Amino acid sequence: MSGVVAMETESVRSGRSERSERSQRDRNHGSRSHRSSRHTGGSSRHHSRDRQYGRDHDTDKDSVSIPMHQGGSGDNPGDDNENHVEGERIEVQILPQDDNWGETTTAITGATSEAGFSMEDMSRINKNLEDSIGFNCARYIGSLLTAVFAIVSSVSPIAMVILPKLNLWVWNTDPCGPKCEGILISFAFKLLILLVGTWALFFRRPKATMPRIFIFRALILFLVFVLTFAFWLFYGVRIYEPLERDYHSIVSFAVSLVDALLFIHYLAIILLEIRQLQPQYVIKVVRSPDGESHSYTVGQLSIQRMAVWCLEQYYKDFAIYNPYLDSLPQYQTKLTGFKFYNVDGESAPVADGRSRAIFAAAARRRDTSHNDRFYEEQEYERRVRKRRARLLVAAEEAFTHIKRRQEQEGPAIPMDPQESAQAIFPSMARALQKYLRITRQQPRYTMDGILQHLAQCISHDMSPKSFLERYLSHGPVLWNDKEYHATQTWVLICEQLLSRDVEHGTLFQLRQGDVSLMITVRKLPHFNLTEEVIDPKNNKFVLRLNSETSV
């Protein structure tokens, strides 16, 4: 029997050339393949081996496997003819094609490599970096400037007193007598009080970064700068140039600077702290889109400072806004509006009457939409109360299974709070999950956070209601762990200059994403009280009796 040499060629070609080549081969060898398929001997087994070989070695979906077999000369002429016919047969295996070829997918980017950055990425990074640097500069530039002026003004009196005693140049001064020493003691205590007051008033972490300057704060810094500059100017002209010998006069000059700085500090306390304490306005804060509102009384503030004060009250008093509660579960309702088209020419009177009846029914359904909404809200509240009760019962039953280990008690295996929480949580997990689902609070809490809170309550011997307080009541916005950030960015919108003081009728808005706060300002009215004296002679009464009186 002649030997068989198998040759396998694999190539990647275009779809059009492969289809044309396959069609041409099918036309040329269709009849021969049909005749060779009748032989079921060695050719059939060889054919199965070729197909198995093609399946084992075909790893690419885009390749075409064409096994070709050629037969040699043999002793049996019948086998030779059979092998000759089989050698001319070509088997074409067509693999399934995929339209989404990963090898031909092209991504056009501005980067030079997969690990590189494009120009858009670099510009975005630069923008974020500039915004971060600009925000930090704007946040701390006021405090830094205040610190510089405070340090310079506080060190200046000390320098004026010490300079004549440094012996850097020939400056002979008279000795300091008892009166001079008393002034020095007063100078030291005044300066200490000034330093403590300055630290308490100005060296504080800024609560907010405002778009406009704070007028009164800038005024105080300007007065400090002018006063310090003026005293140094007179010190150089009247004391340093003539080399004043009277040390008592030099100390008195420095004490005068400290006294002036103390008076400026008192003025700063009045303008920055006391002025705004007396209530003068009533503001109303309305949150959109849920419409929750609160009213407050405030003193005289600028618009931007009042906006900061309103945000402090908002994070403290307003409940957490849940956008998922805006869409309560509703039942599927039929369409209430119809549109008719006349496609058959003139409409019949019956059709007109039918359309009028349908429109009337739709109008009646629209009139009852408020009734449907009322019953849907009632049903929702009923389901919330029901699941709340189930959650309370499940939590109470779960907490009854744990007890703090006492001394010399039974052989129970002690557990830490985390293990105890993991042990009792599955018994109330389903009830808690259903309650969070119906109240749309699932996105706000995670499993790890709930277990951590449960372990904390167990370790401090808290009751089941104390554990569920976080989920049953809507706490203030500040306690929303999901949206809590160290820095909250809001946009202030107002038609007036933000550094101006508020007045009656001032209206401004604060925005952050989908939440907006509308603040309306009204001035407290002037209360006119009059006195009315009741005459003791007229302060007498008469009892009227009739037949039905019970007295």
Automatic annotation (TrEMBL):
| Region called Disordered, residue ranges | 1-83
Under the heading PANTHER family, the entry gives: VANG-LIKE PROTEIN
Q: Main localisation, per the record?
A: membrane
In Swiss-Prot or TrEMBL terms, this protein is called Vang-like protein
The membrane topology term of the UniProt record is: Multi-pass membrane protein
Query: According to the UniProt entry, which residue ranges have a biased composition of type Basic and acidic residues?
Result: 10-29, 50-63
Q: Which residue stretches does the UniProt record annotate as biased composition, category Basic residues? A: 30-49
Q: Where in the cell is it found?
A: Cell membrane
Record organism: Ridgeia piscesae
Family statement? Belongs to the Vang family.
A Pfam family that this protein carries is Strabismus
This protein's UniProt keywords: Cell membrane, Membrane, Transmembrane, Transmembrane helix
Q: Which domain of life is it from?
A: Eukaryota
The family database entries (InterPro entries) matched by this protein are listed as:
VANGL (IPR009539)
